Amino acid sequence: MTKHVFGNGPSPAVASYGLRKTAKDAETDYGSDFYDFVQNNFYVYDGLISVSTPAKAVSLLTRTQAALATGHIRLHKICSNSQEVLDNFPSEDLAQDLKDLNLGDDDIPSQRSLGLCWRLHTDAFFFKVYDTPKPYTRRGVLSTINSLYDPLGFLAPVIIQGRVLLRDMVAGTVDWDEPLSETQRVKWETWEKSLLHLHSFSIPRRTPISKGDLTNEVHIFADASERAIAAVAYLTLNNNGETYTTFLLGKSKVAPKHGNSIPRLELCGALLAVEVGEILSEQLSLPPEQMTFYSDSKVVLGYLNNRTRRFYVYVANRVSRILRFSKPEQWFYVASESNPADEGTRFVPASQLKDSMWISGPPQLFLRSTLKEESFSLVEPSQDENVRPEVVAMKTQISPTSVTDLIHKHSDWMKLIRAVSRVILTAERFKNLQRKVKPDEYQKPQGLLHAAEVFIIKEVQKQADSREVDVLGQGKPLPKTVLY
């Protein structure tokens, strides 16, 4: 086969392999930056990359076109927020709706980058909201929520409210086209109409990345409520003592409705923060040590700093997962009113999203070097159902006691026999348990008392006539020196 049918299962994998193999073969002639662009910045056949100057962009794209042409792959549909970049390529190589434009006079139309709407002349992401009415059914509600494509989490505090409403509305329904509960209709329609405010919402695409002596740090916040779990990450750029903050990535999830306490949900929020950190570490080549994590739950911070107690499986697995990527020293406490992830769990109206702390970040983000490290201990571990109770091991030490001592403690012969018989019975039961054998005649009361009586007599004889007992034990006759 020389062509791969669109929609065939292996086609995307084969196409990606062919693209990367061509880039690898051409790396020596066209540069390592070209190979890195193809290897790490292509999703199937769409390539997205940012460079510092228009000249670098033109050079990179020109070399990439030439290199891929050696494998009969045509790189075209070029789009950029820089007019200078677009002017360096013929119209047939530009995106479809840019071909017939007068690039010097006309406004550059908006583009879509892997599903994200990108307004080129302002270099900002924006969102399209379709106001086509949908039926008030599970299918219609889910279609409305999923029409908001937001992989970076800009709209998470808005979308999560719709998802929580969906969970509440579908309770008790089975069919996808069955009308939902009327008790939730007003809330749903209010939320649906509020989405129209997103037409005026946009967020800058550009994120400042410092070089040289400047400092970049990633700050990730986690929070949870009974309704939702959220985590959001920001990049701080420090330049000559001035700190700039920019949104990086946010995520939110509907919290499980039953079976989870607030500490467990907060722990799930911390785990979501670590997952956000892993995505940023992989996609932006940021080392985990460069990240700082925050939670407003001192219970969770106690879990992560614990070194003395054991947890039940649910908590133990999540704590272990968190500490595989981060260290306890990277986790800090933040008050709820300064935690932007709190807005991802308690919802933000679409009309207020632009000015929310979710987008702008907390009022003030300090560099990690200025943060005061704290040591957090478990909060009331004896009452925490997630912490295993302490195991207390008791040690019993027995001092050697002779039969003579027992005789002095008992004034009655039968009491002495019964005391010794109980000791013999305990010893025999322990031996039988170890040997896994059935009880013998010592278990019978008469045999047990007789054995105790014989034992006492033998022990007294050993103490009173130890030499004679030793000689007789060796099978020798008694010497005359010991005869009476």
CATH topology of the largest domain: Ubiquitin-like (UB roll)
Instruction: Supply Rg.
Output: 38 Å
Q: Describe the biggest sheet?
A: 5 strands, mixed
Mean pLDDT: 84
Low-confidence stretches: none
What is the CATH architecture descriptor of the largest domain? Answer: Roll
Query: Can you tell me the number of structural domains?
Result: 4
What percentage of amino acids are in beta strands? 5-15%
SSE pattern: HHEEHHEEEHHHEEEEHEHHEHHHHHH
> Which outline best applies?
elongated
Q: What would your notes on this structure say?
A:
With 484 residues, the chain is α+β, with helices and mostly antiparallel strands. It folds into 4 domains: 65 residues; 97 residues; 158 residues, Ubiquitin-like (UB roll) (Roll), CATH 3.10.20; 80 residues, no CATH class. Helices cover 40% and strands 12% of the residues. It has 16 helices and 11 strands. The chain has a 5-stranded mixed sheet with strand order 9-8-7-10-11. It has a 4-stranded antiparallel sheet with strand order 3-4-5-6, with no helix packed on it. Strand 8 and strand 9 form a beta hairpin. The chain is elongated, with a radius of gyration of 38 Å. The N and C termini lie far apart (115 Å).
